[in-house]
Amino acid sequence: MKKHLLQVVALVLFSLAFGALAFAGEIKGKVTAQGMRSAADIAVYVDAISGKTFSPPSKPAVADQKHMTFVPHVLIVLKGTTVQFLNSDPVGHNVYWPSISGNKKLAHNMGTWPQGQEKGFTFNDLGVASLLCNVHPEMSGYVVVVPTPYFAVTDKEGNFEIKDVPDGSYTLKTWSEAGKPATQAVTVSGSASVNITVTR
Per DSSP, which regions of 87-155 are E strands? Predict the structure, then answer.
C-alpha cells in the first residue's frame, strides 16, 4: 500500500512537472539594426502582462567593472532585482546614474570603492539607468529595468532567445543605446520566431 502511494505521488509530481514544461515556450528572434553600428546589446523583453506581477529573484544580478568597462555593457533585470556592483580593477571606481529614463529624482551615486569590493542596489523603478564613473568618464553602461522576467540581450549578430515564456499573446519591446524603441506583437504556442527592426 505504501509503495503504491509513493508511485501515485511520483506520477502526480511527474505530470505536474511535464505540464509546466509543456506550457513553457520560448521566443527566438533576430534584431536588424538600421543606421546603427551594431545590432549587439539591444534589450528585448515582454512588456507588462495585464493582471500579472512577478516576484524578483532572490539571487542578485551582477555588474562588474573590469578592464575599465562595465561588464556587461547592458544588463537587463526584472523590477525589484538587486544588482551587485563589483570592482575587479586595480583602481578605485565610482558608480552613479544621473537619472532613470530621464527622471532626475531617481539619480543615485553609490560612491567609490577599491578592487575586490562590491555594493548592492535594488532597482524598484522601471526604466533605464545610465551607469557612469566619475573617476573614469570614458566608462558607460546601462541597467534596463523591465516589468516581466522574460527578456534577453542580443548578441553581435542581433540574435536573441527568451526562455520559459508561457503560451499566450504578448507585446515585445526593445531598448538600445543608439536606436529608437521598437514594439512588436508575438504569440507563443510552444515557441515563436520573430524579426524586429530597430532604427536609429
Answer: 93-97, 108-113, 118-122, 127-132, 140-146, 151-153
C-alpha span between 192 and 127 (Å, rounded): 26
CATH 3.40.190.10 for domain 55-146, yes or no, is no
Q: What is the fold of 23-50+155-200? A: Immunoglobulin-like (2.60.40)
pTM of the model: 0.85
Q: Residue ranges of the domains in the chain?
A: 23-50+155-200, 55-146
Q: Chunk the chain into consecutive blocks of 10 residues (it has 200) and report each block's average pLDDT, rounded to whole numbers.
A: 42 40 78 94 96 94 93 97 95 92 96 91 97 90 98 97 95 95 94 94
Note whether 23-50+155-200 and 55-146 share their fold.
yes
Strand-pair category, 82-86 with 159-166:
unpaired
CA-atom Rg of the chain in angstroms: 20
CA dist 44 and 53 (Å) reads 19
